Write the structure tokens for this entry.
Amino acid sequence: MTQPLLSVRDLVVEFPTRRGTLRALDKVSFDIAEGEVLGMVGESGAGKSITGTAIIGLIEPPGRIAAGEIRLRGERIDNLPEDRLRRIRGKRIGMVFQDPLTSLNPLYTVAEQLVETIRTHLAVSEREARERAIGLLDQVGIPAARRRIDDYPHHFSGGMRQRVVIALALAAEPELVIADEPTTALDVSVQAQIIDVLKDICAQRGAAVLLITHDMGVIAETADRVAVLYAGRVAEIGPVADVVKSAEHPYTRGLMGSIPTLTQTGDRLTQIPGAMPRLDAIPPGCAFNPRCREVMPRCRTERPEPVARGGGRQVACWLHAREGVAHG
Amino acid sequence: MIAFILRRLAQSVLVMLVVALISFALFRFVGDPVASLLGQEATAADREALRARLGLDQPVFVQFLDYIGRVVRGEFGISYRLQEPVMDLILQRLPATLELALISGFFAFVFGVALGVYTALNRRGWLSNGIMTLSLIGVSLPTFLIGVLLIWVFAVELQWLPSFGRGETVEIGWWRTGLLTDSGRRALILPAITLGLYQLTLIMRLVRAEMLEVLRTDYIKFARARGLTNRAIHFGHALKNTLVPVITITGLQLGSIIAFAIITETVFQWPGVGAFFINAVRFVDVPVMAAYLMLIALIFVVINLIVDLLYYVVDPRLRVDRGAARH
Amino acid sequence: MSEQTEQRPSALRRAWDSDLAYSFRTSPVAVISGVVAVVIILGAVLAPWIAPHNPFDPRTLNLMDGFTPPMQPNAFTGNVYWLGTDNQGRDVFSTILYGARTSLFVGFAAVLFAMVLGISLGLVAGYRGGWVDGLLMRIADVQLTFPSILLALLIFGVARGFIPPAYREIMAIWVLIIAIGLSDWVQYARVVRGATMVEKNKEYIQAARVIGVHPARILLNHILPNVMGPVLVIATIGLALAIIAEATLSFLGVGVPPTQPSLGTLIRIGQGFLFSGEWWILAFPAVTLLALALSVNLLGDWLRDALNPRLR
């Protein structure tokens, strides 16, 4: 079996506060294969963004990676000193943030920001960097790139700005691109375009994508596999088609049921009662147990570990544990 | 852009008019100008003549316009205390104040920015914490106390520097400068530090706060995610974005330096415009007070105008976009 | 059947456990500043009772006692003074107590004036909106471009000009308070105006108007608790600034009259004796002023951080 591009094992991220230590991620594990698009989905606060931030090493103190491993092509990157990490960022792992308006420095032109990024990682002349930059802008679909490259960020519309951001993230040819809610701040009409741009340019370069979003529809359209996060833990992972059609974790099933589709019959979307617990009030056992319709006594006391279900699927739920009594 | 300039100009003129009104009221209604100018022995006829000549028999509104007319021409009347034209007295003392203000402003800006950047980038170092603590004290220390303490240490105890006056000065045309003589330069040191220290603390804390704020922004986060070097991030991106608001605020501070010069000049007996004004307040020398009022207002209004325009030039977001594509 | 009733912790206990008190207890800076400030304030308030002498009663002065260094017996009279005496034989410790008293009186009064003025204007601006609001805010903007000490100086100077010479000394302290207060009302107004605008559009205000109750009173009841935090921070730092402003003006000779010296006046007097070696006449008032201003400033800083929800 080929080595995965990115391998995350039992990742724990903690934030010490005056009232005690909060665990934003509690033993999260997953892999990303080369060139694949892994969607990461979950409610606000489930830990999706933190996962992305942890991988690229940008967790702000006092937050920290408390345990676990992150490996890029087999080498550990979670415990590297800052200057080694810096060389990985941009060059091997790129990141796209949510808000294109605030992601770009308003006082520099697009050309200046692109050229700077390119020349930081590649030994090229200023002119060659500029040519590359123009090429990048072309690829992300900015019309008249040669002319517009000298404009300031505020001269571009939201969708165009995000394309510039994508170009910047890919400027140094990374192997993995982490996209943290790349379309949430954009108009609905533009969202699909940007996802397409992202997918195309990554496919062209063979870069893998960790697509973080709360929008299940985007995942269904774009991702190869999907990881569902709940309260800082992985509930379920699997190929997108499988998870969407036949989810195994009760939470995932609830999520799928709450997405309106054209073929749906009936007049009500399913709702999951209750709300995701706050980080300082996570119940013992399975984090989902207070809201689960199929809860068993075991769920309230023991936390389920992820269990392989074949076909690349994993579920963390006592319903599907081999040793446990499966619910009929 | 034109609309913007016109609006600001109109605002400035309005402020000046209000200040002129107050000055005029001072002039007209405080004490009796005629008695102050003529003294006790003048006859009634003399008083009437002076009254007519000063235009005091005209309606108030006309007098006000007349006042404005004279002010614009730089005629502020005669000082009650020194019996000389106010404008001349002010012009004589202006170089001393301006020289002091400029030197201290320069000192405050350079060191303020340097220390601000250092304490922002080295947040947790012991030197940073020490500097920040000292700066807190600096904000609580009144300017006059700084001056007095400096005099105590450097002039009385150590006897390194003079405790009052400008030292020897050299006249260049209308300007009288102390920068060309050794004693002049040494006399500048303590007053410049006194005047500049408050500004330095302000600038330093401002630069630090602004830089910390900038370092938290998304575009800095994105820059780090792109793997840019620390130097590029701190001095290329963060510093530039920090300096934009800092420069404008510093420009605004220039006006207050000129105002605080009043205190410093009094402490060091510096023969400038500020000390002159304090004496005028103490003796209720109205023409001088009125003139100073107008002068200060003018300086502040002009500085604010320039700073507003400067901001406009430096921050490209405020410029009018020709053909900004909207698609 | 026994019912266990849980005692609700007493108000004092709750205050002690509150976030604010916790923040205070765990911040050494806040505690030290608080103690220093309280000590000085108490000293000033109780001055008439605890000062060893009344330095401003000419009958108690003995010129022969003049220029006595601290803790050393006077060459002529043999009296010992803790902090020495000045040129007129006044006990420096007593002059500091009375000086602080004057300084604090002016400071507190000026802040009170500024607060009342600022809150009222803020309420009016926020409630009325329209041109009243526009005008007030424009005035505020213009005023903010001038440093407040300069404003206080100008207001004081101009006001004194309008007062006939006979009354100038008596009115000096009140004019000073008003001048310093006037130079500093803007921040209070801004905070209250913002809060007023938020509350104004809520339904209970409309309801009040229908019933006939004047909304301004209701606004006050609802806004004041919300803005108390920021207003307190502004007031604390404002107190430090007012004290410094008064000291500066008095030092310059355009503040409190010589019959009621404040710490600023004392420093001015002290500066004159630096070169002749009687350092204590300057040193102790200077230290007191510094300690007072610094401690109040630090308290204000701590308060601002403690009440800032973003830093929790």
In short: The first helix of chain B runs from residue 2 to 29.
